[in-house]
Write a structure and sequence with these properties.
This protein has ten helices and 14 strands. It is of the alpha/beta class. A hairpin with a 4-residue loop joins β1 and β2. α4 runs parallel beside α5. The chain binds zinc ion. Zinc ion binds next to α4.
Length: 321
């Protein structure tokens, strides 16, 4: 195998993640990531963490539905970054399929994994998910993945994508520019989306772009970027049932807002059905304290219904219909 020696920048960025990983409050899985890139250039590091409100109400031992109460480091980075389109992420450990889908949706183009992450018990427990799902998601999305050997000052390619590859995207998010944000406009946008998307679950949010224009962002649930239901239906299966190749609409809205550099308005987030446990934790992590839900009885699973009850009973997330 040919090794590159040109990764000095990525190696330094990885060191930034390694330097903060022990500040994670997680007792066993301490993980950190650095996101970097962009014009103008940025770089910031985050560990996995419990949002304050979840930590205060539930501590570190209670799951929210079927999800841990933590934001994964990769998602924490994406939600804090100015614009994630084309950015790179260094992460201390092999990433989970949910983060793979989210990074793909956020437009991340390169992922670096620290060599030590492959030695940990955590990596061996997650090995098959990483190989069978996270890496497949990256391949379809067109994300190159490298192992970083910091001491040897080199990058080892795990997956290199042809720069000419463009993933199919058969259900892109819909971005509309609006005059202003108001309850009436928000409700109109929801009614339009419901009419257009019919049976699909969807999410919609209002925010502002970098030109300070008011925008609406609408997404329906869809397979991870690069997968097409028409072409891939027969190939898509999960090996454990824990993960799905589908990216849920609220996660899509959050990731695309980051991708485009939008600042979401905390008053206007809508989901047509109850978001999944993992989405709800991400919503809280993204700073929302309220959201609108179309049908509060309709959810992917009972875990989501349990999660929404936990968050609304503890007043972490106010649910409006
Ligand atoms: Zn993850």
């Amino acid at each position: 195998m040919e090794y590159e020696r040109t990764g000095m920048n990525a190696i330094e960025q990885m060191q930034k993640a390694v330097d903060v990983v022990n500040t994670s409050l997680h007792p066993t899985n301490k993980i950190a990531a650095t996101i970097f890139g962009g014009t103008p250039a940025f770089s910031l590091s985050r560990t996995n963490y419990w949002p304050d409100s979840i930590l205060k109400a539930f501590g570190t031992n209670t799951d929210i539905g079927s999800s841990s109460g933590t934001l994964h480091a990769e998602v924490a980075c994406i939600l804090s970054a100015p614009v994630t389109e084309g950015a790179s992420i260094c992460v201390t450990d092999p990433f989970c399929p949910n983060c793979a889908k989210n990074m793909a949706e956020a437009g991340i183009k390169t992922i670096y994994i620290d060599h030590k992450g492959f030695d940990k018990d955590f990596a061996s427990r997650r090995g098959s998910h990483f190989q069978n799902m996270s890496m497949q998601v990256c391949e379809r999305a067109g994300i190159s993945v490298y192992e970083v050997r910091r001491k040897e000052d080199r990058l080892v390619p795990i997956l290199e994508i042809d720069p000419s590859y463009t993933p199919p995207n058969d259900a892109p998010v819909i971005v509309s520019i609006l005059d202003h944000a108001s309850e009436a406009i928000f409700l109109d946008m929801i009614a339009d989306a419901r009419a257009n998307l019919q049976e699909h679950k969807f999410a919609l949010a209002l925010g502002r772009n970098s030109n300070d224009e008011v925008v609406a962002l609408c997404a329906r649930s869809h397979l991870a970027i690069g997968y097409s239901k028409r072409i891939d239906a027969s190939e898509l299966h999960e090996d454990s049932g824990k993960y799905s190749f589908i990216l849920e609409p609220v996660n899509r809205v959050l990731m695309n807002a980051a991708r485009l550099g939008l600042t979401l308005n905390p008053e206007y987030l809508y989901s047509s059905t109850v978001p999944t446990s993992r989405e709800l934790v991400n919503v809280v992590g993204a700073g929302f304290t309220a959201m609108h839900i179309g049908n509060t009885h309709l959810a992917r699973d009972d875990d989501a219904l349990r999660a929404i009850k936990q968050l609304s009973d503890s007043k972490i997330l106010k649910i409006q219909q």
